[in-house]
UniProtKB/TrEMBL annotation:
It comes from the Eukaryota. This is Uncharacterized protein.
Length: 501
């Protein structure tokens, strides 16, 4: 019979199981190492933890990249309503000049992504602010030669064979984007600083609010004040600086960063040359990828009757460019997850995260490809009303679908490479696969075998596929215990470069 004391004991809720505790705390390494759990339960629990961490990073990052992409597209649209010459000038200035600066700056910014991510995982929090400041210094200095390129863009475009009228109009547009160079120099290190700490939602809110303001300012400046092309590009530069200012204000005023942001420091000026070398490798890796499909457009322009082919491939690459933002979002998430877990010394978590992020991104890419194939006969009408172009786009959609599938894997593998600090190695792989195999193969198929744009694109796909297979082979043969040790040694080396206190 129960005692009186036992009868009056409060009824407590059942304590959470070990599995539930793992999920709540996100202790991925402990789950993967817990041999007491059944294999299937361990896999389910680990997958759930990783998916929560992954989508918390990837979803806001995808939105940020989409918004930034749309902001640039909106600027070109405003310019297009001024006339055909203005539209051509804005497209040339954006694709021919601005994209060069964007790729270079974003690539160099991925160096701080490696260091900040691994430092955060290793709980060396004070170093994140130092790395961010060091990256801003290096990228700002890089902006100086880029400014020279912008200033002499007319002469460069004339050398490339553009007409004097178009080059002069593009020059006006490009001059208005010079302040944007330095916004990139500050924005990308800030972005990587936040991503390394899995803080990405604020950037999404800031970018979304800036997009609304950008549309209003563009309408006012271009149409009401009549500033034309220079007004459109100046507003775009201003919008990027608004994003930068809002993010800086958030970092400086929020208590969230009390450990990772301790104010301006002279330490940021030490070890700059080593940082430049890592940044240069990162820039080469990313730029070779960004420029690859620009080369496809240039080669297509050398065909006998390029007009229809260029129209069709421009539509296809516009779709690919929009959907690539999803892959770039997963690229950022993969980089953060890998660098954080390497810094924390969790080899099993790194390996598991690589598998999950590649699987999720691949499945989404397959869905994109299926939708594109299903809409192949109507997809071009979002860009043009011509039936001839629609038929040409329909013929190219199978190539677009393959490209979308590869874009679901390749950017993620590049993100893993950034998280590990493999930028220099991947740069060599990109040179060999893209420009040693893809471009020559495309030229042979397109011109020698007279397959036209289909042959050129087939060759380019071959280069991308070879690069993807090499990165897959390297990634899944990696000894993650060894990578943890390399990350530890890298952080110790970079801590030695702190400089005077």
């Amino acid at each position: 019979m129960e005692s009186q004391d036992e009868l009056h004991q409060p009824i407590l809720p059942p304590s959470p199981t070990e599995t539930e505790a793992y999920i709540v705390d996100g202790r991925l390494e402990e789950v993967l190492s817990d041999t007491q759990l059944p294999w299937l339960k361990r896999l389910t629990c680990a997958t759930w933890i990783e998916l929560k961490l992954l989508f918390r990073l990837a979803a806001p990052a995808i939105l940020v990249y989409l918004i930034n992409n749309f902001m640039s597209s909106a600027t070109r649209a405003f310019a297009g309503h001024l006339g055909n010459l203005e539209l051509a000038a804005a497209n040339l200035g954006n694709s021919g000049v601005q994209l060069f600066a964007y790729g270079l700056m974003l690539g160099m910014g991925s160096a701080v992504e490696t260091l900040c991510g691994q430092a955060y995982g290793a709980e060396k929090y004070e170093m994140l602010g130092i790395y961010m400041q060091r990256a801003i210094i290096v990228l700002t200095l890089t902006g100086i030669p880029l400014t020279v390129v912008y200033v002499f863009c007319k002469q460069i475009l004339l050398l490339l064979g553009e007409s004097t009228t178009l080059a002069s109009a593009a020059e006006v547009f490009v001059y208005g984007m010079i302040p944007q160079i330095y916004a990139y120099a500050v924005n990308f290190p800030i972005q990587k600083f936040l991503q390394a700490q899995s803080i990405v939602a604020p950037s999404t809110y800031i970018s979304a609010a800036t997009l609304v303001l950008h549309m209003l300012l563009s309408w006012l400046v271009v149409y009401k004040l009549g500033w034309g092309l220079i007004g459109a590009s100046l507003v775009l530069s201003l919008s990027w600086w608004i994003i930068v200012g809002a993010q800086l204000l958030y970092i400086v005023t929020s208590s969230t960063f009390k450990n990772t942001w301790t104010g301006l420091s002279l330490q940021a000026f030490s070890g700059l040359w080593a940082f430049v070398k890592l940044s240069a490798a990162s820039a080469v890796m990313l730029c070779l990828e960004i420029w690859y499909f620009q080369v496809l457009v240039l080669i297509t322009g050398l065909l006998k009757d390029p007009e229809l082919s260029l129209d069709a491939i421009s539509v296809c690459l516009s779709v690919a460019g929009l959907l690539l933002q999803i892959g770039i979002g997963f690229n950022a998430a993969a980089s953060v997850r890998v660098s954080n877990e390497l810094g924390a010394g969790n080899p099993k978590s790194v390996a598991f995260s690589v598998i999950i992020v590649n699987s999720v991104s691949f499945m989404i890419a397959v869905i994109e490809a299926v939708i594109v194939l299903a809409l192949r006969h109507v997809i071009s009408y979002a860009f043009t009303s011509g039936e001839t172009v629609a038929n040409a786009v329909s013929d190219l959609c199978p190539f677009l679908a393959i490209t979308l599938v590869l874009n679901g894997i390749q950017p993620v593998l590049s993100g893993v490479a950034v998280g590990c600090g493999w930028q220099a190695f991947v740069a060599y792989v990109n040179v060999g696969c893209y420009y040693g195999v893809g471009v020559p193969l495309g030229c042979v198929l397109g011109f020698k075998f007279d397959l036209g744009v289909k042959g050129i694109w087939s060759g380019m796909i071959g280069g991308t596929m070879l690069q993807t297979l090499i990165l897959l082979w390297i990634t899944f043969r990696t000894d993650w215990h060894e990578e943890v040790n390399k990350a530890r040694n890298r952080l110790e080396k970079w801590e030695d470069k702190k400089g005077p206190h």
